[in-house]
Write a structure and sequence with these properties.
Pfam families: spore_CmpA. InterPro entries: CmpA (IPR047764). By secondary structure, this protein is an all-alpha fold. The chain has one domain. It is built from three helices and no strands. The relative contact order is 0.12.
Length: 44
Amino acid sequence: MPQWLCNQLMGAFLKKDRRQIRLLNDCWYFYRTKPRPEDDTASL
């Protein structure tokens, strides 16, 4: 997980900001499931 995202999540948890926690969580899962261009070339 990128450091900037860890910092944002830490701040959201400390402030108990559920909306921001949910948004950052969605961003993380989108980032993790996004297909990467280097993965496509490795499968050829």
